């Protein structure tokens, strides 16, 4: 499942560099996570690094992008091929 950043984001800039897939970018008002690049750090870390570093706990699973661990690993393989 991809993650999403909630409106409570304070734009502290710590999540973007923590993402190994470069799935996080600055949006118009808050940071956003691109679901086509987010693997919840599967294949990299035991837990999503953006969640670990977020000081306001504003990152949660995105119910619009439900994926199994095997799907996330397949997505990671596709990202790494690019």
TrEMBL record:
Pfam families linked: Fer4_7 (PF12838)
Source organism, top-level taxon: Bacteria
Keyword terms, alphabetized: 4Fe-4S, Iron, Iron-sulfur, Metal-binding
Ranges for domain 4Fe-4S ferredoxin-type: 1-29, 31-64
InterPro entries assigned to the protein according to its UniProt record, in alphabetical order: 4Fe4S_Fe-S-bd, 4Fe4S_Fe_S_CS, PSI_iron-sulfur_center, YfhL-like
Record PROSITE patterns: 4FE4S_FER_1 (PS00198), 4FE4S_FER_2 (PS51379)
Gene3D superfamilies to which the protein is assigned, alphabetical: 3.30.70.20
Keyword Methyltransferase among record annotations: no
Entry-linked NCBIfam families: di_4Fe-4S_YfhL
Name of protein: YfhL family 4Fe-4S dicluster ferredoxin
Organism listed in the record: Lysobacter soyae
